[in-house]
Amino acid sequence: MEDVMTADGFLTNKRRSPVSLGAALAIQGVVLAGLLSMAPKIVERGREAITMIDVPKIEVPPPDPIDPPKPTTEAPLSRPTTPDQIVPTPADPVIFTDPAPLTPIPPGPIVGTGTAPFVEPRLATQPKPPVFVDAGLDPRYASGLQPPYPGRLQREQVEGKATVKVLIGTDGRVKAVQLVAADDPGFFKATEEQALRRWRFKPATRDGVAVESWKQMTVHFRLES
């Protein structure tokens, strides 16, 4: 029987038919049979999923023995040494005495009693400057001093002079001639040639040693009357 609610709100008992009841029982039987047929498979699958594995026990080797620490011997503490006490000793007192009075020397000449000869002090001597001696004509060659008269100037009756500077070597010969002044170039030319060929000098010296030097010379050209 089944309770059914009516339109007026009251429950009424309704009888089920045998056909519907049989159908319901048939459906429940089919479902139950299906569940019973599936149960062994579920159990088997559950058994297959769980596998028991025996894990061997791993033995851990014991750790290496640790040597016990050696006892350390402490060094004996050295006792501080106290330095010897220095006792200052008083120094000898310094005694100042008045110097002995000097005996005054009576005025008068000093007379020596020794036998050593008296030596006068010498003043420091300064070095002497070098002695320079100028060059001079060699009298042995005096006749060769005057140069020959230039022919053109002699024909023209021209007189004059020539002043030159000559470089005299250590052998007394003329090494060079320089013009200082001349009334005519012909006078200088004749003087230059004569100086280089014929002039001879005594060379200049410095402290007795012959040295080169320059000397100025003047030559006159005069016509004989």
TrEMBL record:
User: What InterPro entries does the database record attribute to this sequence?
Assistant: TonB, TonB-dependent_transducer, TonB/TolA_C, TonB_C
Tell me one GO molecular function of this protein: energy transducer activity
Q: How does the protein's chain sit in the membrane according to the entry? A: Single-pass membrane protein
* Comp. bias regions, Pro residues: 59-71
Provide the transmembrane region boundaries: 20-39
The keyword Cell inner membrane belongs to this UniProt entry's keyword annotation: yes
Q: Name one GO cellular component term.
A: plasma membrane protein complex
Protein keywords: Cell inner membrane, Cell membrane, Membrane, Protein transport, Signal-anchor, Transmembrane, Transmembrane helix, Transport
Compartmental location: Cell inner membrane
* Pfam name, any one: TonB_C
Q: Does the keyword Transmembrane apply?
A: yes
Q: Which residues form the TonB C-terminal domain?
A: 134-225
GO BP annotations listed = protein transport; siderophore transport; transmembrane transport
SUPFAM superfamilies recorded for this chain? TolA/TonB C-terminal domain
Where do the segments described as Disordered lie? 56-90
The free-text function statement in the UniProt record for this protein reads: Interacts with outer membrane receptor proteins that carry out high-affinity binding and energy dependent uptake into the periplasmic space of specific substrates. It could act to transduce energy from the cytoplasmic membrane to specific energy-requiring processes in the outer membrane, resulting in the release into the periplasm of ligands bound by these outer membrane proteins.
Protein family membership? Belongs to the TonB family.
Q: What protein name applies here?
A: Protein TonB
Species:
Sphingomonas sanxanigenens DSM 19645 = NX02
